[in-house]
Amino acid sequence: MPSWIVAVPKPKRAPMGLQEAIKAVQAESRAKFDESVELHMCLGIDPRRGDQMVRGAATLPHGTGRSVRVCVFAKDDAAQQARDAGAEVVGDEDLIARILESGGGGLQFDKAIATPDMMPKLSKIARILGPRGLMPNPKLGTVTSNVAAAIKTMKQGRVEFRADKGGVVHAGVGKCSFDADALYNNAGAFAAAILSARPKGVKGGTVSGYLLSASLCSSMGTGIPLNMASLVHAAQGTRKAEA
To answer: CATH number for the domain including 206?
Structure first.
């Protein structure tokens, strides 16, 4: 670039209400595939402190738009229930042995569930499943005796979240092809889950202390800053609907 040419930075976009931002993301999507709509939320937490880690799961009322392949570690009646409920992969010690032998190569599932009696046996492959986010966890509802209900939740639109080192949580809340109201309700459900996961040690108000900022974008698009009051309002609407 010649020295006399000065690059002019693009002006920052003003925060938009959630409904307005959703319509903007859909209108600006130019990819040849159905892009995901992503919600990114910056939290007022210190991820280095164990008592301020934000982790959990949210169920999106309109799903994620993605097909989810579920694996269930179970035996006997629970294994049959898993098959009847539509789990793509079901097994016990034999399945664990195959995963261990392969080193995790070619895993044919996106989510994993286990019955409580299988958890001690899963320790053999914890180093394989853990880094991939596939290790069943009681706190996330993926260790359960009611495997049919867990499978249904997974396939209906359950998304797990965990704050990264910068205190930011990320989630896909649907596809650009979704109805705008469906995306609004999904985003509200995810925000409600983040509010419910607020650590007790975080000081300040909902926006001033915990939900610091948020943005919405498509997979290939630029982030649109959100008006935080509108996001909180959507979350509160989800809570009222669940009450």
So the answer is: 3.30.190.20
Q: 123 and 187 in one domain?
A: no
Given the DSSP bridges, would you call strands 111-114 and 70-73 parallel, antiparallel or unpaired? parallel
Contact 145, 119 (CB under 8 A): no
- Please give the residue range of the domain that contains residue 130: 70-155
At 104, list the tokens. Answer: 């995790």
- At residue 13 the predicted structure's pLDDT band, cuts being 50, 70 and 90, is confident
Residue 46 lies in a domain: yes
Round to whole Å and give the CA distance between 228 and 212. 8
For the chain, give the mean pLDDT: 91
Instruction: Tell me whether residue 125 is in a domain.
Output: yes
- pLDDT classification of 184: cutoffs 50, 70, 90: very high
In a domain, 2, yes or no: no
Is the pLDDT reported for residue 84 higher than 70?
A: yes
Q: What are phi and psi of 96, to 5 degrees?
A: -60, -40
Contact by Cβ (8 Å): 42, 212: yes
Residue 12 φ/ψ, nearest 5 degrees: -70, 145
Other beta carbons less than 10 A from residue 243's beta carbon: 5
- Check whether 6 has a pLDDT greater than 70: no
Q: Give the start-end residues of each E strand in 28-114.
A: 36-43, 55-59, 70-73, 89-91, 111-114
Kindly state whether residue 63 falls inside one of the protein's structural domains. Answer: no
